[in-house]
Fold this protein.
Amino acid sequence: MYKLSLVIPFILIYSAAFAQAEKIDTDRPDQTEGVNTVPKKWMQFELGFLMQTDTYSKKEKDITYQHPTLLTRYGLTRNLELRLITTYGSALHKDNHVSSNWKTGLQSLQVGGKFNFVSEKHWRPTITLIAHYDIRRFQTPQHDSVDGANFKISLQNTLSKKISLGYNLGMEWENFSSQPAYIYTIAPGIDFNEKWYGYVELFGSIYKNEKPQHRFDAGLAWYAMPDLKFDISAGTGISKEAAGWYMAVGGSFRFKTGK
């Protein structure tokens, strides 16, 4: 705790020293990936903590914790960024109220990039491609020798000075030996003022020959500084196949690494 109290003021001071007029733009807390890339030669960290339950019956459910998940982003050019996702967490299975199979370790390690190739003009949205390679062989304790991947096309339309509409379409392979999931998101967002932002969102996954999984969530974000942002969100399944809920909190900050 003492070390943390020393780190936080350093982050605030460092962030303020490099603050720009444009506020930090993050991919969290919603499931809809944003269309903007990190500015060139800027490093950005997006940290989150999550608790999620997946209920299969009145007596059986899984509980997952992410503590934490970290998205690291670096602006390589004006419209291209490099990305690294690491998630450390725990999973617990409960059957008839008896807990078992508590597992803790590296849940995800993904490397990828984000490329903005179309700018918004009139009715045409901003369009960005986001892709990751999922290195599952490094996962613990559930080791998987077959890797996976995912990609999304992220789009956004500005509806007014305060309201925007973001939406994603993509595919995800948990591993290359399994069938892919077709994923979608749609999230209207609103800037309440210079400090507060909120959104509601519908998102889900569709597998071949299986019933789709649809979910809903909402969240709030607070800009403490132009380069520092905190968020809170929660969501729930709205189809039987997606029964469960989650809650998450997080924070993001960025700094410039060179001229």
